[in-house]
Amino acid sequence: MNKKTVVALLIIITILLNAYLNLRYDSDLFAFINDDQRLSKSEKHWLDNHGSFIYSSDYNSPPLRYIDENSQYQGVIVDYMSALSINLETKMKFKPEATWNGAYENVKSGKADYIDMIESPKRNLRFNFSKPIYKLRGAAAFKKGKSELTNVLDLKNKTIAVQRSDYAVEFLMTNVKGADIVQTNNMSEALIKLKNGEVDAVVGDEPVIKYIAARLSIENGISFSEKPLYEENVVLAVAKSQKEMISILNKSITELDKKNTMQKIQEKWFGAYSLSKNEKQEKMISIFLSSISILILLSYIFYSWNRQLKNEVKIRTKQLNLSRNSLIETLDGFTDYLVVIDNNGKVILANRSFGKKFGKAKEYLIGKNYNELINFPCWDYAMGMIKDTFENGNGLFKEYKCNGSVYSINTFPIREGSENIERVLTVIKDITKIKVSEKMLLHEDKMVAIGQLAAAVAHEIRNPLGIIRNYAYIIKTNDENLETTQRSIAAIESSVKRASGIIDNLLNFSRLCPNTVIKTNMKQFIQSIFNLYTKPMQNKGIQCSVICSENSECFVNQESLKHIMTNLISNSIDAIEQNGMIDVKCMTYNEKVVIEISDTGSGIKEENIESAFNPFFTTKEPGKGTGLGLYIVYNEVKKCSGEVNVYSTYGKGTTFKVSLPLETRELRGNTKSIEGESIDQ
């Protein structure tokens, strides 16, 4: 919908609403919206100073105004004035008069505040008028059997009785030429004149004429004009000097209009109130205009909402396309091989790297069954992992050797608004160079450790060699004492065994173990690592203890555990300046093997704990540390699917807690590729 159409619709709706409000409340749209019915401070102040309102009118116009048999002032208008008083929260006094003209003079002279009347140009010179409070029909009554009156023109040259000062006087003087107007004190007097034949007709308020005619028992002898002579709004007339009163009355009248107070009062007095033809037309027009306005408004709202929804769909679709294209471009930028498989085994997305590795454009792969990708490296294993992910709902990670290279395979389940897995994202990465770099790094770390141990090992070997040389000299110079010779030979054998043990420990440490799990006696393994550090620990006066069951045997990756333990024990030794303690506890529970290495060294500052496992981070002096020890520990633990945590109090000591999952022989090395075996993390 363009702007011109919207503006045109708004103008039409405004006109219709304005027409309805004008008919219903005698107000335009702008005034209705901005009409604040609350009294201002100045109006409240004026009302407090003014006191009670005084309403004056005649008491001979039933059912509008009259005094009943109990001498109570009653009637439709009297009830409305009471409702007005309640709404304004002020007292209302009534000043009824025998004639309407007397009440008229009361307001004109200031003895009363207001009177209800039909507005006219002549009256407008003396009074200010409120908003309309009700409509009043004027009718002409005549004797039955006389010539019928159909409209106002039939009153020409007639003698007509009218209540003195009534609006009908002005109406007849303006609209009927040649009429002889006889003014009476009240409507009863006018109807008696009609009954006696003194006048041709009586003109006045229709409900008053009918009510008094019934009370005089002459209702069957008179008829009424077919159409009302007039139908005008009745307002409250206030002296020109009382401007504040008009504003206050108008606000209260508006509130009563919105509550349909007058209609309820009329229903009380007349039952189902009979609307005039004009009122019926206005009512129908109001209903029609209201219906049209609501229909147009609802149509416009629905149309606008529908159009807005369409625009939102277009915008969202465009955003989704842009997002999808951006995602595809991002995926194409990865060197890893990415492919998405749906639950029917169809390829729905592949990045450029995957297509290039496969030897086809990525568009060629879309829609293919994943069985057709068998030429892709390690795809046999990837297919099995994809199937397991669909069945189990969990992402998987494996490393495999294929065609002389090492590949990591990750699967990620994709759920779209349901618990069922709709798709699986598979990421394959060539990690051959990474593995080579890791091995080089570990080898270098081991060589550094060996270099650090070389001096201590040399010293350890020199001691038994000195013993061997001394006892060899004794044997050489002692030809007769057999006991001395045998004791010397035993000492030589013990020293050789000791030197051989030292060399075996060093060889065991430097030997590359296969990257698989091996059944290992944990206490013996940990003790063998400590044996390598005997001399450095003796030099610093460091004691050690290994708390572990003698028969504690677990399937562990010895190569990884070797790097973990040597780096942690080496760190503990470096952290202790002199005379300290290193405790190692090993236990198994919840299908895990947990190793705690505690020392009484200098500890780690709190701000450095989070950085402890970062590569090249070290607090040691230059030349005494590479910053890779704990980084290697972290990586080796993660490679074994374990966890490592550090707890330290600066100046008191540090504890490293390593937790590794317990394995069985069957969990490792069973999955074979075409050329080699799987590499588990």
UniProtKB/TrEMBL annotation:
SUPFAM superfamilies: ATPase domain of HSP90 chaperone/DNA topoisomerase II/histidine kinase (SSF55874), Homodimeric domain of signal transducing histidine kinase (SSF47384), Periplasmic binding protein-like II (SSF53850), PYP-like sensor domain (PAS domain) (SSF55785). The keyword Transmembrane applies. Keywords: ATP-binding, Kinase, Lipoprotein, Membrane, Nucleotide-binding, Palmitate, Phosphoprotein, Transferase, Transmembrane, Transmembrane helix, Two-component regulatory system. Residues 456-664 form the Histidine kinase domain. It holds the Pfam family SBP_bac_3. InterPro entries: HATPase_C_sf, HATPase_dom, His_kinase_dom, HisK_dim/P_dom, HisK_dim/P_sf, PAS, PAS-like_dom_sf, Sig_transdc_His_kin-like_C. The chain crosses the membrane at residues 6-23, 284-305. Residues 323-375 form the PAS domain. This is histidine kinase.
